[in-house]
Amino acid sequence: MNARPLLEVRDLRVDFALEDRTVEAVRGVSFEVAEGETVAIVGESGSGKSVTALALTRLLPVPPARFTGGSIRFQGEDVLAMNAAALRRLRGGKIAYIFQEPSTSLNPVFTVHSQIAEAIRLHRPDVTDVGAEVARWLDAVGIVDAAKRMHDYPHQLSGGMQQRVMIAMALACQPDVLVADEPTTALDVTIQAQIMDLLASLKERFGMAVILITHNFGIVSGFAGRVLVMYRGKIVEQGPTGEVLSCPQHAYTRALIECIPKLGSKEPRLKTIDHAALAEGA
Ligand SMILES: Nc1ncnc2c1ncn2[C@@H]1O[C@H](COP(=O)(O)OP(=O)(O)O)[C@@H](O)[C@H]1O
Ligand SMILES: [Mg+2]
Predict the structure, then answer these.
(1) pTM of the model as a whole
(2) What is the pLDDT of residues 66-97, one digit of tens each?
(3) Which residues approach ligand 1 with their CB closer than 6 A?
C-alpha cells in the first residue's frame, strides 16, 4: 500500500511582481490531499485560493507570478521541476479544473461536442470511439437529450448547462483530482444546489479527489470531509469540516461561518469582518 498522499503542498509561496509593488498572494501554504479525498479551501475574495489552485499545475502567468518558495508534489513528482511535456500531461489529464464562469472557459466558436472530443483526444489517445465517449459524459452530468445538445454552441446553453458541460469536459479526461474553483458562484441558488449535488454524486461514482474552492462556507458542509481556511495568503485553520464548523478556532473562521446565509434570507456580504482586528492576529 502506498501511504504517500496524492498531492503534497509544502510551505508554498507565490507572489506577483508588479511594476509598482509586489503582491504576496500565497504566503507559506501547506496541505495534502489523499486519493479520493474531498478538501475544501474557504476564504473571502482575494485570500489566495485561486492562486493556490492554479499553482498546482503552474497555470499562473510567469511573470508576473513568481514561485518564491516551497514545493508541490503530485504522486511524488516535483511539479515545480516538471518540463513542458510533463506539465501538459498533468494539466487536465491528472488535475482538471472547473471555474466560476463556464462561459469564459468554453470556446464560443466550437460546439460542445467538439470541445469535449478535443479534450478526450488530447488526454486519452487510446479511446477509439470518441463520439460515444462524449455522449457518455454528457449523459453522466445529466444533460437531457445529450445526443442533440452536443451539437449546440455554448451560448445556446443556460449557465447551469454550461457548467455541466465543463464538468463533463473535466471528467472525460479521467483526472485524479478535480479542482472546482467557485463552481457555483455565478449561478442562481437553485442551480447551485443542483450542481453541488451533481458533483457529490460524480465523486461518489468515479472516486476522484476533489478540491472545492469557495468563499461560501454554506456549501462546504455535507460535501467536504476536511476544510482549510485561507486568510491573506495563509491557511489560518484546518480540520474536519464538522469540527471547524462547530468549534472554529480562528476569529476569521467564525466571521466566515456567521456569513453562511440562513435559509430563505439573502446572502449577506462579507463586509462585517473587522480586518484591522484580524490582521493583528494573522
Ligand atoms: N495575475 C495576477 N496579477 C497580479 N495579482 C494577482 C494575479 N492573480 C491574483 N493576484 C492577486 O493575488 C491575490 C490572491 O488572489 P486570488 O488567489 O485570486 O484570490 P481568491 O481566489 O481567494 O479570491 C489577490 O491580491 C490578487 O489581486
Ligand atoms: Mg478565486
Answers:
(1) 0.91
(2) 999 999 999 999 999 999 999 999 998 899 99
(3) 16, 23, 25, 43, 45-51, 61, 64
